[in-house]
Input
Amino acid sequence: MERVLGRYSEETYALLRIVVGFLFACHGAQKLLGFFGGMADIPPGIRWIAGPIELVGGILIAVGLAASWAAFLASGLMAFAYFLAHHRMETPLPIQNRGELAVVYAWVFLYIASRGSGVWSVDAALREGRRATA
Output
């Protein structure tokens, strides 16, 4: 499989970054703007702290602009969310306390933070622009 898909690893990573960033931004839009069904009874701290990180961070990750920094912040947010909202339930297992999404986001964002923006990103376009003018 690596011989077939390995040729497209950079593009596959870019698609991962774009899709996950977009989905994360949707969570922020839900909290802040009431989109996608909204969240009526959300505590103000979550709305005004997590919401902007999710919306702006998700957009930055999706477009690949300072994606490492945005993903690192998002990873920390999701780890905090897991321990704040899910771990304290009756069991620490994500499958039982409905914390799988927070755990997956935390680890995927940590991976994105380690890899950076990659191809198909604003950062890559800016690098190319600097090389072209140099």
